[in-house]
Amino acid sequence: MKKLKHESELVKEAILAGMKYGEERGVVEFEATDSAHEKIEYIYRLLVHDKLIQPLPEDQISQKSMRHRLAIWMSRQLPKDHPLLK
Q: What is the superkingdom listed in this entry's lineage (predicted)?
């Protein structure tokens, strides 16, 4: 798994976008006390459930791989000229 350029910033954007997506869909309400790890796992599983991202094999699911998958998802949501994609 090759690390993306600006991966940590893409993950932050993915968390914000995923939280908004989940709350607008009415399936979750995130709290200020929720950790980033919890948010990443919930958003990853929600996007897999909704078939917006490809699931990882069960034996390869880790915090690092979920972060990477969310960063890839976010990079595909952004416009081509976005600063995080350069």
A: Bacteria
